[in-house]
Design brief:
Elements (H helix, E strand, L loop, with lengths): L8 H10 L10 E2 L12 H6 L19 E2 L3 E3 L5 E3 L8 H17 L4 E7 L6 H6 L3 E6 L2 E7 L13 E9 L5 E7 L13 E3 L6 H13 L3 E12 L7 E11 L11 E8 H5 L2 H5 L1 H14 L7 E6 L6 E6 L9
Parallel strand pairs: 4-5, 8-12
Antiparallel strand pairs: 1-2, 3-4, 5-7, 6-7, 8-10, 9-13, 11-12, 14-15
């Protein structure tokens, strides 16, 4: 399981350009007779009272009529549990009661990591979980993921996402003209012609992302030929590491129609004019990336072809990118 704190604006601008892109489950009911009468009457609950409209009561759980439900959860493959977010109690008091009983149960069973996904509409439960020892792991639109490492000592759960993935589409026609764009952005590189680029969408293949970005920015249809090169950088936008994959694409249409929300202009530019821009004379990495793309176009460099194979890990088809010009040993 694998995204982030913003760096300053200057870092974002530089990053934006170098990237060439824009920025078994069982529910158990228990009377819990072994728990103390003061189980819910401690400083944690006192601190939660009256916080942002959250009121946590302290029921007398020694009463035979008081029952606490364990949280609905699935065992994961690593000795931990994943709590079902759709079954979380809606009230703060019910949630903290169920959470504490469940954590005690999982500790007795020798469980390790606990994953707690809290949906947007359950946001009032977040501070309660934090007070109970959970930590933030990551967030995406609609939810926050929290974790708790039961054994103590260093947490061995995987960290939050550490990389961003972007793609660039190098499109060149038979006239040795490159499809280039100027982006609408306030950074100092806004007047530089560059290849269309962007970020990969969720569950999108690299080559599909390159084809999509070129289409969105310029209106030109393309087909994927090969993956040429990639750049790996660290501590860029959002203080994350960053991967940018450059793909060689073949144009299937010529007419340009730009996305005026993001692009100032787009055109077919002779390769010599493109690479002679002052920026590329000074930026050795960017220049070498373009030279690699041109060499791949002229068959002086093989690059990596996308091969669809089945993985034993998940039983699904996915793409492996490799140079198939050499001879492979059969085992």
């Amino acid at each position: 399981m694998m995204a982030t704190k913003f760096t300053d604006v200057s870092q974002l601008s530089g990053h934006r350009f170098w990237h060439f892109r824009r920025v078994p489950s069982t529910k158990i009911v228990s009377n819990v007779p072994c728990l103390s009468k003061n189980f819910l009457r401690d400083s944690t609950l006192d601190r939660l009272k009256n916080r942002r409209g959250i009121y946590v009561m302290s029921p007398d759980i020694s009463s035979p009529s008081f029952k606490v439900e364990f949280l609905d959860a699935l065992d994961d493959e690593y000795g931990g549990v994943v709590i079902n977010p759709n079954s979380l109690p809606s009230s703060a008091n019910a949630f903290v009661s169920a959470l504490r009983v469940s954590m005690s149960n999982w500790k007795l069973k020798g469980k390790k990591g606990v994953w707690l996904k809290i949906l947007l509409e359950q946001a009032d439960l977040i501070p309660i979980a934090i007070e109970e020892g959970f930590d933030y792991h990551h967030a995406e639109p609609g939810y926050v993921m929290l974790t708790h490492w039961i054994p103590g000592g260093p947490c061995l759960l995987p960290a939050s996402p550490s990389h961003q993935i972007g793609i660039g589409g190098f499109v060149i026609n038979d006239k040795r003209e490159v499809l280039v764009v100027k982006e609408k952005c306030p950074c100092t590189c806004s007047d530089v012609w560059k290849m269309p680029t962007g970020y990969i969408d969720k569950s999108e293949d690299l080559f599909s992302g390159a084809i999509r970005e070129v289409k969105e920015e310029t209106g030109v249809d393309t087909t994927f030929l090969k993956l040429v090169a990639f750049r790996h950088a660290h501590l860029v936008a959002f203080e994350k590491s960053d991967l940018l994959f450059m793909c060689l694409l073949k144009p299937m249409s010529h007419q340009i129609s730009i996305d005026e929300n993001e692009i100032q202009a787009a055109e077919w530019m002779p390769i010599d004019e493109f690479i002679s821009q002052p920026f590329y004379k000074e930026d050795h990495m960017s220049r070498r990336a373009i030279e690699a793309c041109l060499a791949a176009h002229e068959d002086h460099y093989n690059g990596f072809i996308a091969h669809q194979l089945t993985s034993k890990l998940d039983g699904k088809l996915s793409y492996l990118y490799y140079d198939n010009s050499g001879k492979f040993l059969d085992f």
